[in-house]
Amino acid sequence: MIGVLRQEVVMAANRKEQRLLEAMWIRIQPLLPAHPPRPKGGRPHVDDFRCFEGIVYQLRNAIRWNDMPAEYPSGVTCWRRFDTWSRAGVWKRIHAVIVAELQAAGLLDLSELTMDATFAEARKGGTASEPRNVGSGTRSRC
Fold it and tell me: What whole-number distance in Å separates Cα of residue 142 and Cα of residue 140?
């Protein structure tokens, strides 16, 4: 009896997560770059939504790309799509859309903003950000 109830809870959580992924996908899909044409053919592109699912799974679970479960595209495929989208600025545009939606809905309060940073003084005369070049300079000769 407990096993059946646990399975129903897991299935409900999976359905809820799937609906959340689909809702995110509706916002994200228009922001994705088009795939470049392949005049010489090659393998067909893996569906963007499937890669998005894999990327979200990897980021939420903090696993290595190569440890992706079999129900997602390969880790290499997901990583390549993540890299392509990162270089195209997709994640920055997604962030801007989400912030704009929150602000339009009145759910973002910008009246108080805080920036935190830590700065440490370089001790022992360390002013340069790179190591000294040991080979340059005068040498003493005996």
Answer: 7
Residue 114 lies in a domain: no
C-alpha 6/C-alpha 37 separation (Å) is 47
Q: In this predicted model, what pLDDT tens digit does every residue of 91-132 receive, in sequence order?
A: 999 889 888 888 899 888 878 777 777 766 667 665 555 556
| Cβ atoms of 58 and 78 closer than 8 Å | yes
The 8-class DSSP code of residue 135 comes to T
Distance CA 21, CA 15 (A): 10
Residue whose pair of structure tokens reads 């994705």 in the numeric block: 32
Q: For residue 139, what are its two tokens? A: 């040498």
* Number of domain units in the chain: 1
Cα(105)–Cα(96) distance, rounded to whole angstroms?
Answer: 14
